[in-house]
Design goal:
The protein has about 425 residues and is an alpha+beta fold. The protein has one domain. It is built from 16 helices and eleven strands. A nine-stranded mixed sheet has the order 1-9-10-11-7-6-3-4-5, sandwiched between helices. Strands 2-8 form a two-stranded antiparallel ribbon. Strand 4 and strand 5 form a beta hairpin. The longest helix has about 35 residues. It is globular and about 80 Å long.
């Protein structure tokens, strides 16, 4: 039992700290809003970032970051979304099998002739444990469940992502309607953080799947985007901190101190650093200054991302990635997209109007992503049924010893 009285004083102290932090954030927001005007007028800014040579945001070519856009009128469209879930191996049960479940949602608004209005489905994939050199065996020769469970730790999210990407690629061909379809991914457009932590064949496989999905969506003229709720990104703020350097307007470059410290000090730079006034601010706090709650469905201008990994691994130099921020009603959301979408006005309008319409009917979050999650999620009752089914199948196969742990048996027979 949690003793709330014991943490009450600490809660009051944290509340005071939150209020103080809020006041400082508001000051930084106002400074950030003013700096957008300054940065938007700097003709040298894009070139200066390119000369700097680091992976960071830069103004998209021939676009004014000071601009915001209302949602285009929504017409007939099709939205495809995927998500995934899993049942991890449990060493308290008879066999450490595990399950990857990829779910999808397809909604058609004004469906074309011969097309269904919606599709909600999932594809469960039963997996055996990954054997490795450390896997031990008990006296009967069966794999020790604890060792096997440990051997798959950290791989499940990779396998789940792989299933989601493969499912999304198939849905483009099966469910895509020419000229009116968008594909939404939950989270970043490319899961770089996961990819960068991988080595060997797994990394190459995920890169290949992302690359094929992006290329296929481009071939079919289906805008693809990643939708991120509660983003903590700071790329746009970093670009504005870059523009604070006093040397920039006269030399077109950062001063030596900013070159050394801009990307090193993201939260607490030296007080006299040119870029210090905006350190600690997040992009969504900046976007809040441009998009108030009365501007539901409005978006910011696209900000481009200079990324060596994107250029080398995904498009091989054939276009960048970028992002914009959307006033989704309940929050400011980040939307990541490839350059070929924002450079085609028809596709950009389709993506913007469809995402906003999905957020509007989904109370601030795209309904298609919510329903794809519901199709994929494996809840407690489903998980229990999964393990009971394993036991039944093994009994029917004359596997007499179920070998449940005492802990697993106790959960089925409450003692009080």
């Amino acid at each position: 039992m949690l003793d709330l009285e014991a943490v009450l004083d600490a809660m009051h102290g944290l509340a005071d700290e939150v209020r103080g932090s809020r006041e400082e954030t508001l000051r930084r927001r106002e400074r950030g809003r003013a700096q957008i005007e300054v940065a938007g007028a700097l003709d040298c800014l894009r070139g200066a970032v390119q000369k700097f040579g680091e992976d960071m945001a830069l103004p998209a070519a021939q676009r004014d970051m000071r601009r915001t856009y209302p949602p285009p009128a929504v017409g007939h469209y099709t939205v495809i979304a995927t998500d995934g879930s899993q049942v991890a191996p449990d060493y308290h049960h008879v066999a450490p099998w595990y399950l990857i479940n990829a779910g999808c949602a397809v909604f058609r608004y004004g469906p074309p002739p011969g097309r269904s209005r919606s599709r909600l489905s999932s594809e469960p994939i039963l997996k055996p444990p990954q054997r490795n050199a450390q896997t031990t065996r008990d006296e009967e020769g069966t794999a020790d469940a604890r060792a096997v469970a440990v051997s798959v730790s950290g791989r499940l999210e990779v396998e789940r992502l792989r299933a989601e990407l493969e499912y999304a690629a198939r849905l483009l061909d099966e469910e895509g309607d020419p000229g009116r379809t968008v594909l939404l991914l939950d989270g970043p457009l490319i899961q770089w953080r996961m990819i960068s932590d991988l080595r060997g064949p797994e990394k190459g496989e995920l890169v290949r799947l992302f690359k094929e999905l992006v290329y296929r969506s481009r071939e079919l003229r289906i805008p693809i985007a990643g939708f991120i709720s509660r983003s903590r990104a700071v790329e746009w703020v970093t670009l504005l901190r870059f523009s604070l350097c006093d040397d920039l307007p006269t030399t077109g470059r950062l001063c030596p101190a900013c070159q050394r410290g801009l990307l090193r000090f993201n939260t607490e730079p030296p007080a006299d650093a040119h870029h210090a006034p905006l350190a600690g601010l997040r992009d969504i706090e900046l976007a809040n200054q441009l998009l108030d709650r009365s501007q539901r469905g409005w978006r910011t201008e696209v900000i481009e991302l200079q990324s060596k990994m994107w250029d080398q691994e995904i498009t091989e130099g054939a276009g960048a990635a970028g992002f914009f921020y959307l006033q989704a009603g309940a929050e400011i959301a980040r939307v990541e997209l490839p350059q070929w979408v924002w450079e085609d006005q028809a596709q950009m309008d389709l993506l913007h109007s469809a995402i906003w319409d999905q957020c509007d009917v989904g109370h601030g979050y795209p309904m298609a992503l919510s329903e794809a999650h519901e199709a994929a999620v494996v809840r407690g009752a489903d998980r229990d049924a999964f393990y009971l089914l394993i036991e039944r199948i093994l009994r029917d196969s004359d596997f007499a010893e179920t070998n449940l742990s005492a802990k697993a048996r106790s959960k089925r027979r409450p003692l009080a």
